Structures are given as structure tokens and as C-alpha cells.
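Lab meeting prep.
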Amino acid sequence: MTRQAEGTVVGLIAGFYDVQTNEGVIRTRARGVFRQKKQKPTVGDHVEIQIDDQGTSYLVKILPRLNRIGRPAVANVSHVLLVISAVQPDFSVQLLDRFLTFFSWQKVAVTIYLSKSDLLENSSKLAQIKQDLSYYEKIGYPVFYDAKELVEKVPSMIKENQIWTLAGQSGAGKSTLLNQIKTDANQATGKISMVLNRGKHTTRQVQLFKVGEGFLADTPGFSSIDLTPIKINELCNYFIEFRRASSNCKFRGCQHLKEPGCEVKKELADQKIIQSRYDDYLAMRTEITEGRIPEYLK
């Protein structure tokens, strides 16, 4: 006699899937039907498992996904904790905009954390970074500067069954932050390659850690993000302040280029939208049109 249970895949280990259920974590194998359908369960998937009288269990069904992001992937991500470093690697508004656009496209909310500000000896440079980030706060992205405050608040921010994931460039301090939030995570932390000004990949697999009422995942750092699959005429919708302003554009479907009566261009002229955001929007349009990631990001 068999029985069924539902749960969330929290880890992959040597062909086994660890599934968090109401009974605890159950280690399972996937049925061969997934190979036939060319499907593969992913960490974060909500699944059904089948357990027989001998306690042997099999993963038999993947429930519908909200999304699937990253490499290796995490499914059903509802929120990203985006770690952007002040230095080593250096702070970049262009990279920040790429991350925000990508996650907006994936319909995932983002909270920003500026790491390594204590390593920045130039106080005027830190002040400039905070001024840059104040714009992102104004348009709706929560921004944290203090790790202690963030660590204290994250457990209450993660709601029931939500999956949060850490993201950001390699070496920004994601694993270090995870170890502070989840002290028993024991994730490896890596040294920075000063030659490349980027971190070494220290996270090679995805695992979900129980935090608050949901889960927090650590993922390998993204050294680049591919925006080329985005449809060119939809890109403007993934800049949240453009999307809000566009309701007052003269023409429906305005691309905010040379169209008359464009509210985005008006807010840009009035400095309600900052020039760097608009410049990055134009650069992303070119990237999508040409179908390739810029060389400096590879």
C-alpha cells in the first residue's frame, strides 16, 4: 500500500531529492517518467511523492512552477535578496540595473543589500553610492546598508512557503550573508581574485535553508545576465518607474524613444527619472536587438 505527500525540493544530492514535507525531510528518487518527458525536478519545485509500506519513496509529480531562474536553477522564487558590493568587486549602477531588469522580467520582487561598505576607505565614494541607491529606494526597492539589521529582519520578511534566493555578482558576499542569517548553513566563503576584480565561484549547488516561515537559497554568483530573450517591445515594462509613467504617455505601447507626448521622456527631463537608468535602458535595447551580451560583461 502506498500513500502520497506533497512538499518542496530543498536539495539535490547524487541523484536523490530531499523533499521538505509536513513529516520532515524525505529523501527520494525521481521516477523514470521524468526522463521520458525530458523533465527534471529542480530545487524549489513543489512536488508530489509516493511512499510505500517499506518506507521507499519516489518523486512522482512536479506541480506547476511560477518560474525557474539561475544556473543551477531554483524554482518558484518569490523574492531575491540582491547583494551588491561597494568594492571588491566595485559598485556598478549598470550591473544593478541589469539584475533589477532581469528579475522584474521574471516577476520576482527584489530587496537590495550593499555589502563591503566598511572596506571602502573613500567616504565621498560611499556617499555617492548611497546617493545612487536612494533613487532605487524612491522607486520602490528596499535597500539595506547594515548586515546586522538585515539579518535581524529577514526571518520575519520571509512569509509562509515563500522561497527567497540570494543573488549578485561573484564575491559580493552572498555566502557570508547566508552564514549570518542561517548560522548552521556552513557555506564556504571565497577569496577575491584581485586580478579579475571578481570573486571565485564558491557555491556549486543549490540548497534551500528553512528561514522564518519559508526558505532561503544560496546560488552561485552571476558573472553575467543574459537579457537577450526579452522581447524588445516589452523591455520598458521591466523598468518599474517607466511602467508607472507610461500610463500617461500619449500613445499606447510607447517605447520612450522619440514618440511625442512621452511621459517617461518628460520625467527624464524633469529629473524625476535619472539619466543613468534611461541610458541603461537604451543600452539594453541595443543588446537585445544585436542578440548578444556586451563584451565587458563576459
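Slide two material, second protein:
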Amino acid sequence: MSTQSTTAPHQNVSAKAESALPTVARMPSRLAGARPTSGVPFARLVRVELRKQLDTRAGQWLVGAIGLVVVAALVIMFLTDGGDHPFGDYLQATAMPTAIILPVVGILAVTSEWSQRTGLVTFALEPRRARVAWAKLVSSLLIGVAAVVLSLALAALAHQAAITLRGADGSWSIEGLAVVGAALYVLLGLVQGVAFGMLFRNTPAAIVTYFVLPTVWTILGALISWLEKPAQWLDLSRTMQPLFGGSLTGEQWAQLGTSAAVWVALPLAVGIWRLTRAEVK
């Protein structure tokens, strides 16, 4: 009796295991259906990255903050001096706040993958990380172009309101290069934000470095005499200022290109390289 009571459970376990073996054997070796013949289209990646940047609470708050600052700047210009300002001044009032705050959206477009730990999903769906990095850059540039167009529209609306409602005589004349310069001012800052995001992959570090490091360089260039000459070529905030003037000399273009290569192109190249080799957790 004792022998039967001790062996019966083992026999039941063996029977259950044997009954499970045919089920495992009948499982298909691969899922049915057609296999994809191409990777994720780049346009789809760009659309996804656009949604990530705008369809989040942080992105919406930043865009709203830009709108509030721009409207406040236009209201101040509308109320001062009878609103009698040239169109270029109104454009500068809309472009400057946009150029200052919008790069944070570009930073978050990259760092959110690592701070919110969504990179594992992103790079599992698209293992080619360089394509994801370029999609983030292109989507950020699209947002920047839209911001520039909106800045032009708001500046024109405020300028016309000053002429109509306050009798201002502000001039509409503006150099075509000044409009291009305003767009470059916004887009260069945005690309720099994306580059710093890729370089650090950490939101606080990228934002602090983006705002503090160029500011420190500008202060040092102004205080230390022997840094004055290098600052004319390496201080991006200084070399971008003539963009609103409507005309740049050959030397000014060279200075802008040199500073953009140091502060934008180099961090972007190193950032993409680090992004493609970073451990995803």
C-alpha cells in the first residue's frame, strides 16, 4: 500500500509530461503569412518622431510657452512708440524667442528615448539607429520651418494691426536675406539642440550645457582680451547676430560657418556616432 501511494504521483506526473509532448511537437516552426520585404519607410519614421515631439505634455507646454512669449513681445512692441516699428523689428521679436526656446523641443526629441526608456521599443522596431537619428533631425527641422512661417505671419499681422489701429508709419521694406537670416537663426539653434541631445542623451545635462556653455564662452570672449579674436570666429551667438541685418560680408559668412561647424556640425556628428553605439536598456 505504501509503495503504491508513493509511486502513483510520479506516474501521474509522467503521464502529464507525455501528454504535453505531442502539443509541443505540433507547434508551428514559424508564423504563417507573408514576410516584409523592406524596412520601415523613412517618411513613416519622420511622422512618428513628429508625433513624439508634439503629442506629449512636455512638447505641448513648450510650444505653448513659445506662443505666449511671442505674443507678449508683439504686444509690447504694439504698445510702445505707438507701434511705429519697421517690419524687421516685429520679425525679430517673433524669431528671437522661438530660436531660444524651440531647441529644447529638439533636445527632448532625443533624450526622451533614454529618460523614459522607450529606446528599446524604438530600436527594436527600427534597428538601424542612424535612420532614427536622421528622422529625429528631419522632424525637428520641419517643426522649425513651421515655426519660421508662423513667426512671419504673426509679425506681419502685428505690424499691420499697428498701422491700421494706431496709425503707425512702420515700413514694410525688408531685405530678403534678413528673412533667410531669421530662418537660419531659428534652424541653427534647433539643430544644435538636437545635436546636444544626441551627444548627452540626458535631458538636464543637454539643456544646461546648451544654455550655459555658449553663454560662458561669450562672457569669456568679452572679458579676456586675447580671446576676443577667437570669439569672432567661434562664438555662435555673435556670428549669428548679423543674420537679422540683411547683409553679410564674406568674412562674416566664414565666421558663421566656422562657429556652426564647431557648435552644430561637430556635436551632431559625435552625437549620431554615440547614439548608434550606446547601450539600450
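Talking points for slide two:
Residues 40-276 form one domain.
Residues 129-166 form the longest helix (38 residues).
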